[in-house]
Amino acid sequence: MSARYLLVDGHSVIFAWPDLRALHDRNRAAARKALADRLQQLHDTTPWRVTLVLDGKLGTVAATAPPKRTDMVISYATADQTADSIIERLVASSGVAPDILVITADEAEKLTVEALGAMTSSPSWLREELEREGASFTNDLERIHRSARWK
To answer: What's the pTM?
Structure first.
């Protein structure tokens, strides 16, 4: 797959993954944070540049420093928009739509972003990608540790 920009419809993923859905039923903010933490690892350890888009409130986070160009982006929809509308706008205005992979379970959203030139995949594909990359990262660390010469 040639796409390197990953746009994630956060609540679509949360409701598709049983563990995050159960957490969301108890604590919405915790479910959002758990997903963001998993995606941050993917963003930090792979070529994927991840943007997580979420519906709803709780998007105000006190920033201690301005974000860097390499930071993972988390975007919250305001009252007059939806995560879907943000994703569509990002794809349409990007100029690199063929390099974008949108993760959503929403069939209408898939059709819209594909019509704009982006690729789509499912929340289950994302879970598999996270597991694959996590195993690869762990193997790399173990190999480095074994080959290190400690004095």
So the answer is: 0.81
